[in-house]
Write a structure and sequence with these properties.
About 25% of the residues are buried. Helices cover about 65% and strands about 5% of the residues. A four-stranded antiparallel sheet has the order 1-4-3-2, with helices on both faces. It is of the alpha+beta class. The radius of gyration is 54 Å and the shape is elongated. The chain has two domains: about 170 residues, Beta-Lactamase (2-Layer Sandwich), CATH 3.30.450; about 200 residues, Orthogonal Bundle (Hypothetical protein af1432). It contains 16 helices and four strands.
Length: about 475
Amino acid sequence: MQKPTIKRITLKNLMIFLMLLSLATLVLLTVNFRSISVRIMEDKALAISEVVKAGLTSHMRAEIMGKRDYFLAEINALTLVNNLAIIRSQEVTDQFGPGHFLEKEHDHVTEQAFKSGRPVFILNDIELEPYLRAIVPFIASTDEQLNCLKCHEVEEGTVLGAVDLSLDLTEYRNVTAKLLAAIGFVTFSFIFLIVVNNFRTIQRYVQDPLNKLIKNSENAYHTHTPIDADEFECLEFEHVAKEINLFTEEVIQRQEVIEKKNLELEAMSDEIEHTLQETLFTMGVIEEQRSKDTNNHTLRVTKYSQLLASMHGLPAYEADLLAMAAPLHDIGKLGIPDSILLKPGKLSETEYEVMKNHCLIGYNMLSHSKRDVLQAASIIAFQHHEKWNGTGYPQGLAGEEIHIFGRIVALVDVFDALSAKRVYKAEWTIPEIIAYFKEERDRQFDPKLVDLLVENINEFLVIKNHYQ
């Protein structure tokens, strides 16, 4: 059996929507009933005012105006009429005198009707007793049947007066309310049925299949098992399931290729990192050999630096970075003349100033690179002769102004120099070294680093003895 398409399902729901739209139009027409009904009431008010106008005219022609109050009282007694009054213009009052009990004075609403010469309607259907007030003006006319100028000494078009009447709208409002209630009930019931039907339709043909498709897609990816497309009722979802199967198969194939490439890149990255590390270490050894320094000095300083960094609490990445960069701490000595670098005796003051330049030379050699390891090496080369109390060189930094890398290498460099035999001195004993560091604690060296080295001296001696 052919499965229904989403198009057919949508068409079905569209027809229901059009029915709902028709009902909404009916409701709109019902709402417009109010304006239509108000218009009818206005027409009734105009009709009553015409009756009053004709009656008063007849009384005037018959010269029985004194009896017009009975006529007005009869009109006022009509069921629909709440109040009825006549308002005279000033011209009529000047000519015939004041009116009787059903005639009243002007207010701001009647003034509007007198000025415009057109009826004024005021609707109030909110209060408990709704009403429509109408002020209908009488205009002086020379019409053959009703020539007002025969009796009134005014110009044609003058407003002679107005009928001020109030019509009761209680019955109208009750009928409207019942009609709106009935329409509202029918509309609510119809909309409720539409919502329930749409909800079930969407749940069955869209939401449930979509959730199933998502769940099955995840399972197909993780288990490498294709989705069963026959599970879906709609033809479109069946096609989507088949497309997902093709897509998943392609993704899995590509992922296997990517994983293989990632392993190759990871191996290549490790090789590059090891090559860089060996290159940096070799550069340090080259400087060591040129300076005719103690064998393995560079290697020991590297190991000491990494150990002290870990003891200080630096993250593993920073400790490893320091270990890679430490071999280059004296790389600037490559720029120092042999006559000064290899001089067996004490340097003169001028020679010493030249020797101090190796810090800046090393910094300039390394600082141009953006790589973290060379940036770290440039800091170490520049700061490993700074002192905690600010008397070092080349910048005279003090305390924590000196980078932790520079403070660590400064300490272990001196430790290795003191604990190793040189051509110009004998190897210091460990007690002598500890006494020296305690003396220079808080002066030349970071006190915390000195404490760590002294308290863990045996671990440093293991490195020293292993790399004699």
